[in-house]
Structure formats: structure tokens, C-alpha cells
Amino acid sequence: MDVIVGAGVVGLSVAWRLARDGRPVTLVDPAPASGASHAAAGMLAPVSEVSYTEAPLLRLGAASLRRWPGFAAELAADAGLPGAEALDLRSDGTLDVAFGADDLAALDELAAYMEKLELPVERLSGRECRRLEPMLAPSVRGGLLAPGDAWVDPRRVTAALLAALDRLGVPLVRARVGELLRDGGGRVTGVRLEPPGGETPSQTPSQTPSPAASAEPGGRASEIRAERVVLAAGAWSAGLAEVPVRPVKGQIMRLRSPQPLLTRCVRGTVHGTPVYLVPRGDGELVVGATQEEMGFDTRVTAGGLYELLRDARELVPGVTELEVADVVAGLRPGTPDNLPVIGPSGTPGLALATGHHRGGVLLAPLTADILRGEEGELAALCAPGRFREIS
Ligand code: GLY
Predict the structure, then answer these.
(1) What CATH topology corresponds to 2-43+156-244+337-386?
(2) For residue 220, what pLDDT band results from cuts at 50, 70 and 90?
């Protein structure tokens, strides 16, 4: 049996794909779908999120983006939803806009780089940008359209994954993993659960641990044995194994609009800070996101929200008219080279599916396929073995 530690979009996707293959799986998480996946905007934007040093990340992102339509259709079917549109999967592209001469020059360089990689991008004047998105500020002087970029609502995706797993009968144990169990040879053989208490929700009948679990006197499982433990605990992964993952805080805001302000994702650099706006089908507009190295701090701050709104208003002045629906801070799992850490670790019995940084939602389908043993060449790009310290 596989035990998946972490029920964010990555852990849930891995569990769902493995369960669909007929593998016995148990998921463990004290609060499923409440971490970075709950905060995420859901951009499936390998092209517009790339930078010059990140060609391998671009390859991973492009490969995962190609999987998204099939992944979403199968997920919707397994979750009992009418279709992939129930996940708000849209593929109308990203428009990256520029204001000043420096930003325009950066867009030119990016466009040349993309063309070299034969990626679909279109360089636009300010007027052409406003023709596509009339709510853009008059001061926008140019843009780069990545027509193939897509996005999805991550909250709908994780809800669908939970529903699909429930329908497949996959146990979900609402508990925190205190440590990985190891045998005398160092092999990982399961997980030890922290005792219930505090705010940890109790288990429901559908979350009965597997027969491989041992119980405390009160009936609550204290350990779950596994052939393989898959660590998908995002920024918390480093607390359980030697993996170079650190929290990168992102504050994000959801605004509500009676009429959609935008038809596609819009991003730009304002005062040297990148900002993006992601429109949902129901009129919601997601504005994100700060990038802060603050450790495990998930406070939403006045300064963070001020910067988001100030920068978003430069791009689309009309945002200040909208109702604030939600503000949240999440912790991205960052790695030293910005690439995820996916696959068998140096320790027998332990696999990793973490370190997705800004791309957890985008990379979830590819991550699941790598954990299923597919994708040798792409798997090599994110293999844990590239870090000496991993065990
Ligand atoms: N993928 C966007 C972000 O992490 O803010």
C-alpha cells in the first residue's frame, strides 16, 4: 500500500491516479485542501511564468499543461460532475503587459527567447492589448500574448479530487504525521500519526484507516504501515525528511465583479513587482501574489494587500470598484533550483512529490504520472537525486 502524506492538489492528484490504477492508497492530512492549494490562483501558464534560467521548468510545465484537458475530463467524470467546465478550466491565454521602456525591452527579449523555443507567443502594441482587454490602463504600452496558457479554479479541483477519492473508497485520515517510521536498515515502513487534540478534526466513517494501521487504546490509529510513503506535504515536507524545501509566502486576494472585467489572465511588472489577475467564469477576479521569505507565517498583512491592490490598479484601474470576497496567504514549497522534487528518494520506501513552488496546480497531472512510473526523461529533470542532502 502507498501512504500519501499531504492532501493538497499534488497529494490528492497522486492518490487519485494511483487509486484509479488499482493501487491501494491511504491519504493522511489534518486539514485536506487547506494549504497552498486553497490560496493558489490556478494559472496553468508555463509560457508566461518562465524565465531565462528555467528551460527545464518550462518543459515540465508544457508537458503537464498538455495533460490538463484529459485530467480534468476524467476527474469530472470520477467526481460525478457534468464536465471539465465544472472546474472552470479555461484556455484563453495570458497577456503579459508592459508600461515603461525597460519592461518593453524585457518583453522583447522574452518574446525572442520564446520564439527560439518555438513557443506560441505574439508581441502586441498597447492599442492591440486594449483591443483584447478594454479595461486595461491607457498607460499600457505593449504586451506579449501567450495564447496557449490556461487556468483552472484550484478550489473546485481539490473538491472534485476529494469527491473522486471518496467514490473510489480511498481512506482519508485527518491527522498530522509526526514522523516517518523506519526499520533497522533505514527503510521507510510507514508513518506515525500525532495524537488527536487541538484543532485536528476527528475521523469520519469514510476515513477508516487501512488494516495496516495500528491503534491507540482509544481506537485512534497511531501508525500506518506502507510499502511506500509518498511525501507530498508541500512546504512542511522538510519537517519529515531531508528535502531542501522552504516556505515562500504568497498573499492573494479574490474580488467579486457583477460583470467579468477581463477575458484572459493579465500580468505585468509594476514598481518592479510582478502582479497577475485571473478571471473566473462566475465574475471572480483573483489578484496575486506576494512572494515573501517569512518562514511559516500565514498572516495576511495590510502592506501585502496594499501592494497587491496598488499594482493591480495600475494594470486595470477598475479593480478598485470591486467587492473584496476573500484574502488569504499560502506557503509555496520553494526549492534551491525552483524545480519540483518528484520520484524515489535515496531512502528505500520513500518517494517525494514536493517542491512545486509556483506550479503545484499546473504540475499536478505530470507529478502523478511520474509517481506512476511514467515519463522517464521528464522525471530525470525533477529527480530527488540532484540534491545530495535528500534522504
Ligand atoms: N503561480 C503563481 C504564484 O505562485 O503566485
Answers:
(1) FAD/NAD(P)-binding domain (3.50.50)
(2) low
Would you list the domain boundaries of the chain?
A: 2-43+156-244+337-386, 94-147+246-334
- Opening angle at CA 141, ends 140 and 147, nearest 5: 80
The full DSSP string for 274-326 is EEEEEE-TTSEEEEE---B--SS-----HHHHHHHHHHHHHH-GGGGGSEEEE
pLDDT grade, residue 219 (50/70/90)?
low
Mutate to test the pocket of ligand 1, among 358, 361, 363 (most ligand atoms within 8 A of CB): 358
289 lines ligand 1 (CB under 6 A): yes
88 Cα to the center of ligand 1, angstroms: 18
- In whole angstroms, give the CA distance from residue 79 to residue 166: 9
pTM higher than the cut 0.90: yes
- Specify the range with the lowest mean pLDDT, choosing from 292-306, 326-340, 369-383: 369-383
Instruction: Classify 94-147+246-334 by CATH class.
Output: alpha beta
Residue 333: CB within 6 Å of ligand 1? no
CA pair distance 160, 363, nearest whole angstrom = 17
Please tell me if the domain spanning 2-43+156-244+337-386 has the same topology as the one spanning 94-147+246-334: no
Instruction: Flag whether pLDDT at 132 surpasses 80.
Output: yes
- Kindly report the protein residue whose alpha carbon is nearest to atom 3 of ligand 1: 358
Tens-place pLDDT, residues 5-37: 999 999 999 999 999 999 999 999 999 999 999
Residue to mutate, 10, 248, 276, 361, ligand 1, most ligand atoms under 8 Å from C-beta: 276
- The end-to-end CA distance of the chain, in Å, is 21
